[in-house]
């Protein structure tokens, strides 16, 4: 199963919580304990070990605040 990582750009996030509601794996929680520069509650990528890089949070974010990365295993060095 692929592993994922996300980054949330706090300059664009408006704290709407769509990402948290629609992550089927419960990786993102709101409220966090930090605010964006504009005063919205910033979501937290609280369970990164569950993320499978499905991309749903990135597609749904209406403010294009989320980037999703698929983590790949490093190939073993050739002998
Ligand atoms: S969907 Fe986007 S704007 Fe809404 S809380 Fe998540 S990151 Fe912020
Ligand atoms: S990429 Fe998928 S599993 Fe990972 S945080 Fe976003 S919605 Fe959840």
Task: Describe the overall structure.
- It is a single chain.
- By secondary structure, the protein is α+β, with helices and mostly antiparallel strands.
- It has helices at 18-22, 56-60; strands at residues 3-8, 28-29, 44-45, 66-71.
- It is elongated, with a radius of gyration of 14 Å.
- The relative contact order is 0.35.
- The model has no long low-confidence stretch (mean pLDDT 93).
- The protein binds iron/sulfur cluster (2 copies).
Which features does this protein show?
20% strand, two-stranded antiparallel ribbon, alpha+beta, Alpha-Beta Plaits, two-stranded antiparallel sheet, binds iron/sulfur cluster, 79 residues, single chain
Quick overview:
With 79 residues, this protein is an alpha+beta fold.
